[in-house]
């Protein structure tokens, strides 16, 4: 039975109050401040109505996205919302005809770009990355030959392919507006300076807002992305801490190993990079035997970053047990988007445990090393590890 509009209107204040309790992370704009606020930085805005069933169902995901992006003020994007039942003038100006409507506003531009994909986090984060990359027109000087300044190579579309075609290279893919990139910049320069006279590796950087073809070819979906490249091919994606010492130790580890990953078909035991990173291509074969504990994550997610070192330590604790694999999947990569949808990843990080290829549990407890270790141990094929 449909309620009369007059009756529904009586309940709107109550519904709005209930939904307001969930406004922990997203920012709510009104007619008075909407235009002013979206002029300050990039925005992704949900236009909604409190009585809308689709809005109510989607609200937790929107808050999850807001928690991941709004908690770090250095991010050049803010997640916000507008209640079209109380601020109808804004919604009318923005041509909102249905709920929820999601629109991305590039800084300084009054017209937004409507999101038309499926409302899941992998699709939404891919859309955000695409919009942020397309929104930058910062000038740069085109260099015909790599110029090493303090040991750091500035690479572009004219010299990148030739430069990385031989030897080993540790490359930072970045965007000038990215807060995390700005924080990393002095450390990256220090690393390059430290290794300036190391003949076995070069330290470089690529501005993805100016050289998108390079970044697309290497499936760069977030910033900064740090890749280890050998003879023109990506070997590993660095996921550890970004201190000078951690980065230097990683370089030493990669130089000390004579093994390099190739793009050959995975072996029956499962193919994975040294960091435990896997893709959709090898996912099934990687989890088909024994116990596999998989972290589905996004590089920009604050909770994922805090878990990163613990996850590496967990993998180290099980390194001598062939029956247990500690793996991770980057859901922001286009190559993994369908996998994350198929595995029903609804937030980051999502920790799923697989046994003999079948998902048997989702971990939702404490993320301390001890608790994670105990959880995996209880599900291990062997009683003693």
From TrEMBL:
Signal peptide location in the record? 1-20
Which GO terms are recorded in the biological process aspect for this UniProt protein?
A: protein folding
Q: Name one GO cellular component term.
A: endoplasmic reticulum
Q: One GO MF term, please? A: protein disulfide isomerase activity
UniProt family annotation: Belongs to the protein disulfide isomerase family.
Residues in Thioredoxin domain copies: 1-130, 132-256, 259-381
State the species of origin: Psylliodes chrysocephalus
Q: What is this protein called?
A: Thioredoxin domain-containing protein
């Amino acid at each position: 039975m449909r309620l009369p509009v007059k009756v529904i209107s009586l309940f709107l204040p109550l519904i709005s109050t209930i939904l307001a309790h969930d406004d922990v992370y997203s920012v709510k704009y009104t007619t008075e401040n909407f235009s002013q606020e979206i002029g300050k930085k990039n925005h992704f805005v949900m236009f909604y109505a409190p009585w809308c069933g689709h809005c109510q169902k989607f609200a937790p995901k929107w808050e999850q996205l807001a928690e991941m992006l709004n908690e770090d003020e250095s991010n050049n994007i803010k997640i916000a919302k507008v209640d079209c039942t109380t601020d109808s003038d804004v919604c009318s100006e923005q041509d909102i005809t249905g709920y929820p409507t999601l629109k991305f506003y590039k800084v300084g531009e009054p017209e937004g770009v409507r999101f038309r994909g499926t409302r899941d986090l992998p699709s939404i984060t891919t859309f955000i990355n695409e919009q942020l990359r397309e929104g930058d027109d910062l000038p740069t000087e085109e260099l015909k030959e790599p110029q090493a300044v303090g040991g750091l190579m500035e690479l572009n579309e004219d010299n990148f392919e030739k430069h990385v075609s031989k030897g080993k290279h540790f490359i930072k893919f970045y965007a000038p507006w990215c807060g995390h990139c700005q924080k990393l910049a002095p450390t990256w320069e220090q690393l390059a300076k430290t290794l300036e006279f190391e003949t076995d590796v070069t330290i470089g950087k690529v501005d993805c807002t100016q050289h998108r073809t390079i970044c697309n070819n290497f499936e760069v979906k977030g910033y900064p992305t740090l890749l280890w490249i050998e003879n023109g091919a990506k070997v590993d994606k660095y996921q550890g801490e970004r201190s000078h010492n951690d980065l230097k130790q990683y370089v030493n580890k990669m130089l000390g190993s004579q093994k390099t990953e190739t793009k050959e078909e995975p072996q029956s035991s499962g193919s994975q990079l040294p960091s435990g990173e896997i893709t959709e291509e090898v996912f099934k074969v990687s989890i088909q035997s024994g116990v596999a504990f998989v972290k589905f994550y996004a590089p920009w997610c604050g909770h994922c970053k805090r878990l990163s070192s613990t996850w590496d330590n967990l993998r180290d604790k099980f390194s001598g047990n062939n029956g247990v694999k500690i793996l991770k999947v980057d859901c922001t990569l286009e190559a993994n988007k369908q996998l994350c949808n198929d595995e029903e990843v609804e937030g980051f990080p999502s920790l799923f445990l697989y046994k003999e290829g079948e998902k048997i549990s989702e971990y939702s407890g404490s993320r301390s090393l001890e608790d994670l270790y105990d959880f995996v141990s209880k599900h291990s094929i062997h009683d003693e590890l």
